[in-house]
Structure formats: C-alpha cells, structure tokens
Amino acid sequence: MNATFDPFLHPASRLALEVFRLNGALIATGDALVAPLHLTSARWQVLGAIADAGEALPTAGIARNMGLTRQSVQRVVDDLCAQGLVGFAPNPHHKRAKLVQLTPEGKVAFAAASVCWAPLADALAALLGPPALEQAADVLHHVRAALTARAQDAT
User: Fold this and answer.
1) CA distances from residue 2 to 5, 6, 13 in whole angstroms, order as listed
2) What 3-state class would DSSP assign to 87?
3) 8 Å CB contact between 51 and 110
4) Residue 10: how many CA atoms within 13 Å on its side-chain side?
5) C-alpha pair distances (Å), 116 with each of 9, 34, 63, 137
6) What stretches of the chain adopt beta strand conformation (E)?
7) Exposed, middle or buried: residue 60 (CB in 10 Å: 0-12, 13-18, 19+)?
8) Is 51 helix (H, G, I), strand (E, B) or coil?
9) Distance spanning both ends of the chain, measured CA to CA
10) Helix (H) or strand (E) holding 49
11) pLDDT tens by residue, 107-129
12) How much is the pTM?
C-alpha cells in the first residue's frame, strides 16, 4: 500500500464518502416525504424499480437493478404485497421465482410519491442547475459501471 495514501483526501474516497452521506440523506428525506402515504424510502424505491422497468420483474431482477440483495428486496416486496401495492404473476422462465407487478393501488401509490418528490426535485434543480445534476448523475453512473465491471471480473 502507498505510504502516502490518505483515504480521506483521495478523490475517489471523498466521492465514496459523499455518496454514503447522500444515501443517508436521501433515505431520511424520502422516508419523511412518503410517510403520509404509509411508505418508506425502501418501499418507494421498489415501487419505482418496477414502474421504471415498465413490466413485472422477479425479485432478483429488482435487486439487480437496484444494486441490493435479493433477500432485502424480498422483505420489502412482502411488505408491499401485504399493503396490496404489488402482486405476483407466474414467471414463464422460472417456476418458483414469481414476477412482481404493481397493482392498481401500487401505481397510485407510486404516482402519489412522485407528486411528493416533484417540488424537492425542482428545488434541487433550481439550486444546482439541471446541467450540474446531469453531470453528477453521469459521473455516478460511470463509477457504478466501473465497480460493477470490476466485481464481474473478480468472479
């Protein structure tokens, strides 16, 4: 290891720490935004992953798209099912791995969460500017892609 390496000054470390802090802030803010809808950030995130896909997905597919473990997503899917926000459909590619789909109530809940998020998204865009947000999203996408490729190469 490089003797002069300072994990708190290295640009990649600083980025990682800010992403961890941002994740915490997003979860706390998201929880507060969607609490009146009887959602959590985790539930909102899973609803969003299904809505974004535009089709029913197996739990493992949702987890893969979100960068989470299948087990953690399964817990959230089970909670959403108990709320009547998602349901299950047969998976033609796998007997046991059912497809998770939004129910009509789930579509309404996701739309309502989006309405809650819109003013904050607009405020962030006004504060930072859409080009800066797009650039930040691009940088984060490239970092994620590099880490994903590295993990795949290791297996």
Assistant:
1) 5, 9, 15
2) strand
3) yes
4) 10
5) 37, 7, 24, 21
6) 57-58, 86-89, 99-102
7) middle
8) helix
9) 23
10) helix 41-53
11) 999 999 999 999 999 999 999 99
12) 0.89
